[in-house]
Write a structure and sequence with these properties.
With 98 residues, the chain is mostly helical. It is built from three helices and no strands.
């Protein structure tokens, strides 16, 4: 499927991945929440959303186009790294207060 146009299912799947990734970026405080207009961080919700993407990866293994797999891998990698970074920052702030 290298030079072919993506089919409707591929476009919808990529849209689904982008929706989850966008939600996670909002939950990680990296994008404005469109409902509140504020930058907010909720690591518990971010973790759940990232785990949902991980479940999608597991359930669709060996059944994705190369493009779908690349988008899913990139989203998961970026989100996991940012989550760990924020979690470490949050945890270090807690220990400094004690």
């Amino acid at each position: 499927m290298t030079d072919q146009k993506p089919d409707q299912n591929e476009l919808m799947f990529i849209g689904l991945l982008q929706s989850f990734a966008s939600s996670a970026w909002i939950q990680l405080g990296k994008q404005e929440n469109p409902l509140t207009g504020k930058i907010e961080t909720n690591l518990k919700e971010a973790r759940f959303t990232i785990d949902m993407l991980g479940m999608i990866e597991e359930k669709t293994r060996d059944n994705l186009t190369e493009k779908e797999q690349q988008i899913l891998n990139a989203a998961l990698s970026d989100l996991k790294m940012k989550f760990v970074e924020l979690k470490m920052k949050q945890d270090s702030g807690k220990t400094e207060d004690k």
